[in-house]
Write a structure and sequence with these properties.
Helices cover about 50% and strands about 20% of the residues. The protein is of the alpha+beta class.
Amino acid sequence: SQPDLNFHNPEVQQALLDDVLAALNARIRPHFLFNALNTALALVQVDPQRAEAVLEDLAQLFRAALAESGSAVTLDEEIDLAQRYLAIEQLRFGDRLKLVWDLDPAAAGASMPPLVLQPLVENAVRHGIEPARAGGRIVISTRASRGMAIVLVTNTLPDAPGPGGNGIALANVAERLRLLHDVAATLRCGAEHGLYNARIEVPL
């Protein structure tokens, strides 16, 4: 029998809503939304221009999160979204969050699924900066090499690790890279010498 696709059916509506929320949750964690809104609210009275900038950055992130799963953007656009995300987190962590950007213009045009870089930098903040009393450093680098664009997100690790993740966001990134580039794209993650590295390679 054919499945019930009656969109007026409350059960179908709820199933669709659950799918959308699951997709959003895999790309932007809800706690980041609450933290960003609280940051904006705290700034409204003391620095309204900065509060407006936070909301603009947040709007751009959610616009990307709602993009169709089969769509593509450039690495340059992904870097812009990551910068917007980290600008919000920089307000929250201050000097505890040290950022280094090492970007190769030759890699900027590589094709990427929307919001695959943002979960990597979000993981770096959540597991590298947040649990560390003194904070830490995140390095985002890109380079072009032998017809591939390589993106590396590296973060310091705290002495005492925080709660582990469930891997859903990384699995979502890997799946969307596969859908866009098949076996030509890779995602490799792991810890080594007190650093955590997340590395994406996609064709140029």
